[in-house]
Each structure stands twice: as C-alpha cells, then as structure tokens.
Amino acid sequence: MSKNHKRKDEQLEQFRTDDSNKKMTTNQGTKVSEDEFSLKAGERGPTLMEDFHFREKMTHFDHERIPERIVHARGFAAHGEFEVYDSMKEYTKAGFLQDPSKKTPVFVRFSTVAGNRGSSETVRDARGFATKFYTQEGNFDLVGNNIPVFFIQDALKFPDLVHALKPEPHNEMPQAASAHDTFWDFIANNQESAHMVMWAMSDRAIPRSFRMMEGFGVHTFRFVNDKGEAHFIKFHWKPVLGTHSIVWDEAQKISGKDADFHRGDLYDAIENGDYPEYELGVQIIKEEDEFKFDFDILDPTKLWPEEEVPVKLIGKMTLNRNVDNVFAETEQAAFHPGHVVPGIDFSNDPLLQGRLFSYTDTQLSRLGGPNFHEIPINRPVCPFHNNQRDGMHRMTINKGQVSYHKNSLADNTPTPATEEEGGYTHYQEKVEGYKIRARSDSFKDHFSQATLFWNSMSNPEKDHIIQAFSFELGKVGSKSVQQQVVDMFANVSLDLAEPVAKAIGADVPEQGGSNVTKSSPALSQENTVKTPHTRKLAVLLAEGFDGEEVTNVLEALKAAGIQPEIVSDTLGLKTADDGVEVEADHTFLTGESVLFDGLYVVGGSGTDNKFTNDAMYFIKEAYSHFKPIGATHDGIQLIEKAAINDSPGVITGREMKPFVKEFVEAVAMHRHWNRKIV
Ligand code: HDE
C-alpha cells in the first residue's frame, strides 16, 4: 500500500514543468488569455457565470484579509541572524547559546499595541519586540516589549486591560491612543498598573526608531544547564545605536505626515546596509537568591534594577534582510512565549503562565486553523515529526498508515527523544499548595518601583512625563476619573501629581509622596549610547550656494555616518555659485522638519522671500524639538533671523574643520534639552 503511494507521488513529480514561462494562469494552471474584460453576452451585455477566471480572481480577492491581531496589529518585521559571544554552557544547554562561530537565523517583528493594522506608528504606546530564533533544536520565540514591566500581574485581567485601552465601543474612538476615559478609569481602579504607566507616559513610549529601542522579555524565565541546574533570568535587547525618543509634538505631527515613519526607517536602514544591531543581555539570579530582593522576582510589574543585578551581554543580533512579502511573512508570523528550546524554561509568573495559553489560541482564528506552523515563516529549520494530522490548510502530505503512538507497524516512530537525545524536559520545580484564587502579599507594593523610575529620570524626562499625563488626562471627560488618577500618582511623587493636577484643573492632592529615594541611572535615556550614525539631516539649500564648501561639509558628515538629504524650494538640480550642482531630494512640502534628526542650513545667494519663509518655519520647528542645527555662510543669516544663534546645539561656523567636528558632536547628542523655547 505505502509503496503504491510513493510511486504515485513520483509519477506526479516527473510531470512538473519548469516555471520560467511567466504566462498568467488560473490557480488550476490554465493559461489566461484575457485579464481586462470579463466574459459578456455581447459587448454591452451581461457578464456570464461561466467566466471561471473572473469568478476565481474575485473569490480570492474577496478573501484576501485575515483577522488582524487583537493587540499588536500594526507591525513591521525583518530577518537577521544571532551570534552568541561566548558559550553560555555554565547556565544553559540551549544549543544556539553554545558556539560563538554558529549563526542562528532570526525573524523580528516590531509593533505598536493598541492601534489597528493601518494606524499611525508614532503614537504613545508600548512597542512589541518579538524575536523568533530558528534554532537547530526548534524555534525559540522571545516575545517581548520595549518596556520591562507590564500593566497587570495576572493574565486573567488582560481582556479587561485591552478592552479599556482599545477605542471605546460605543463610538470606536480614539484610534491607537490611551488618552481616553476607559483606559484611565481602568488604571485608577487597577493600581498595579502604576509602574508601567510611568513608562508609558515617558519618552520610552515614543521611540525615535525601532533601531533605537531596548527590548525586554518582561517575565522571569529560567536558564537550565546540562546538569539540570537552574537560574532565574530576565532577557534584554540593547540597541547598539542607543535608546532614543522623539518629542510628543513631533510624534503627533509625524502621525499625519508619515504614518509609516517607523517601518520606513527600518526598511531604509536595511536597504542602505546600515543593519540594525542589538546585543542580547541576561540578568541572572541564583535559585537560592529568589527571596533576597525588596520585590518579588516573579512579579511582572517589577524590574530588576541593573545596578543590583547587572545585565550580562551574551550575544548580538543583526537585522540584515527585509521581508519579500509583508503579508506572507510579517502578518502570518505566529509568535508564542511557549515556543522554547531545551535550556530555557518558565517561571511561575502568573502573567507568563496565562500567555502560554493565549498565543496558540489566538492563531486558530487569526490564521484559520491548527496548521499555522507549516506556513513558511513559522516553520522550524530543524525537522519536525509527530502524529498530529489533518485540519484546515494542511500542507504536509503525511505518508503511511500509522499516525499514533505507540505502534509496531512503523517501528514505533516517531519516537520521543530522551533528555540526552535533546528531548525537552521541564525543570523539576517543587510545587505544593492549595488551589486558591489569590495574590501573594509580595505582589502588593505597586508604587515603590514607579517612584524608582521617577527618581531615575533627568529633569527634561520628568517634564515630558508631566506633560504626557497632562495631555492624556486632559483628553479624559470624567472629572472623577481625572481626580482618581491624580490621587493615585500622588503615591509616586507629589512633584508629579501637583503640576498634573494644576494642568487639568483637578484638586491638588494633599496626601501622598513616597519615601523611596533610590534611583537606577540605567533607566534614564540621558545615559544611553550617543552616536551620529544613521542620523537623518535636512540640508536647507537654495540656488547660488557655496559649492565647494557644501561638498566638503556633506562629505565630512557622511564620513561620520550622518545621512544628509537636500531640501529646497523645488525638486531638480540646484546650482552653486561655482557651478557645482546638487539634486534636491525633497521640497519644503515633502521634507518636513519632523522627519529629520537635525538641520544643516546652507541657504544661497539665490534665496528669495518664499524660500526664507519656508526655511524659517522649518528651522523654528526643528529648534522647538531640540534638534541639532548647523549653519555656514549664507545659512548663518537665516539662523540669526530666527534669533536662535548662540543656543545650545545650534552650531554656526565659517571655518569648515571646527564646524564639522562640533556639529557632528551636536548631532550625536540627539537632542539639546537645555535650550530656551520662546
Ligand atoms: Fe501579548 N499577545 N499578551 N504580551 N504580545 C499577543 O498574540 C497576551 C504581553 C506581545 O509580533 C497576541 O499573536 C496575553 C506581555 C507581543 O506577532 C495575544 C497577555 C508582553 C505581541 C497576546 C499578554 C506581550 C503580542 C495577539 C497577558 C511583553 C505581538 C496576537 C498575560 C512581554 C507578537 C498574537 C507579534 C501579541 C496575548 C501580555 C508581548 C492575544 C493574554 C507582558 C510583542 O495572544
């Protein structure tokens, strides 16, 4: 019987013809002779049912959409590779963490959480940072966020959180925004959210780029070595370009000017060969030290301060290939925190435990059945065999008569593997207790780490948090909810609650404050890596510019890794006084200041009123967003006209060398917060 099957398969294979002839066909392979006019009874007559090409094409189109993700619907992804620095044998037996000469392919999907699939990317929100490692021992998914803690402590509350965050059901507003009543009502009545809200109101929730975000596994996991010894761990991704954000006014404007800002940034960087890199870090706590901290290490609303538990950098991920097809890869990717490999295990974090159920379940409706692991982007690179069969969209043609364990007809294959053979064995944690619906007292301190975060912020970062609360609560209609939130955050700091209360016309809380004085410098973005590499610079240039100087400055900026793009009044060639020509990349209409990291103001002898007015708007806006601004010769007049010369981060120069050096440093600084905004 099975021999016959084999023969039939082979028979079919030998008839497959080569695919080089790109003629259009139906899905059944019949060549199509006409793809513009449906089959009609006469030139002006009705369309005929027998037009099988029309019916097939339209039916397929009618079913092109699949349900979007309930959360994290708006995402963008890229392929890459991961290499470990040194063997992690001491801590884990995970195969992909043993050999520094081995590369593991990865697929990373970044996302916002609240918005629909077509929403803007620069909204205030956490960002998903989900990585699939295609290891030789199976897929390992690190499904993390760019914020190291979460809103809730128990997965049972996730549907409530998401219902409160999503657009309100009676009018489906607002899209991709937490600035509305139900979200803040949930926060005030679920105070375990305090710490994550601090992050969500901070600059972390408006990142400059997916390339400049940290990633966190959030939950406590375990590393288990080949001796069966376990350590508690937390995963981190550290971007090589540092962690940087945009400002809120800019974020809102970009939402209108370029709703694809983050995907465009990632896509372009990879196409340019500026491959985004992230170091993988782990914090490690010995099993016997589980109770040595002033927080519960299983509580997902708590981080492990890096100063207390250092992050050990163990490897690097490089994203080096854009997807070929966003639907087939990014949209159909199915991540799952329960996709682990031997050497990586779970902890009893109740949020993690709940996630272990949810992710497969959601794919059943999103990807239409239980065979989503066969979609190319989800398929492991190592072989996989079991007795699971059939179901919607089954691709594999399983051969033979046996689909059960144990069996003798197929020599008892597939056979479970022993631990020595690489079989996954769960860490044998001793568990004893009553079945109860309760939360440990050690999970009940909701404010100390929220204050730790507040204490760790620089003054500009604190201002941004106050403004973010004032904006979000300013959009809340219910006075009661506003007051409840202000009173809640008085527990974090009165320095936060007071100005927010004043801004939104609420009563200034009389009680509150915190006795937490500790801070964690690693939490402030002021202390991150600063580099000019891949920074986008708008070069405001008019006819009659100084050709030699501009050529030299642009060369020097490029050598520092900066990416200048010419913005002028019109597209086309712009001619310098000395005949040098450059081509404009944007006009003032298409190249808005919010889309750049800084400006180099060149001007030119041909500057007219229109150019000056447009440039002035550009300069003032970039200035108000604290961006680096450089100017030489004719450009200096524009800077003087804007009355911003001598301000921090505004570099003017007539000598090229010192100008370039100072300006590159200013670009690397990212933003110049100590600037007076008039
Ligand atoms: Fe998710 N989450 N989540 N989540 N999550 C989903 O899975 C869920 C949580 C995260 O790019 C869903 O395939 C529950 C924390 C990312 O495809 C769903 C709980 C963290 C992504 C789901 C959480 C995340 C998701 C929706 C509370 C950071 C996008 C579609 C227990 C560590 C992955 C899907 C991608 C997606 C459930 C909380 C990260 C519904 C029940 C905490 C990055 O299964």
Q: Can you walk through the features of this model?
A:
This protein is α/β, with parallel strands linked by helices and 678 residues long. It has 3 domains: 39-182 and 191-378, Beta Barrel (Catalase HpII,  Chain A, domain 1), CATH 2.40.180.10; 448-526, Catalase, four-helical domain (Hemocyanin, N-terminal domain); 530-668, Rossmann fold (3-Layer(aba) Sandwich), CATH 3.40.50. Helix content is 28%, strand content 17%. It is built from 17 helices and 18 strands. Helix 14 links the parallel strand 11 and strand 12 (563-568). It starts with a helix and ends in a 10-residue tail after the last helix. It binds CIS-heme D hydroxychlorin gamma-spirolactone 17R, 18S.
**Main structural class:** alpha/beta
Radius of gyration: 29 Å
Largest pleated sheet: 10 strands, antiparallel
C-alpha geometry: globular
Q: What is the CATH fold-level name of the largest domain?
A: Catalase HpII,  Chain A, domain 1
**Overall helicity:** 25-40%
How far apart are the termini?
85 Å
Overall domain count: 3
Tally of contiguous helical segments: 17
Report the sheet-strand fraction: 15-25%
The CATH architecture assignment of the largest domain turns out to be Beta Barrel
**Distinct bound molecules:** CIS-heme D hydroxychlorin gamma-spirolactone 17R, 18S
CATH superfamily of the largest domain, please? Catalase core domain
- Overall mean pLDDT stands at 96
What quaternary form is this?
single chain
Number of strands: 18
Which CATH class of the largest domain is shown?
Answer: Mainly Beta
Low-confidence stretches: none
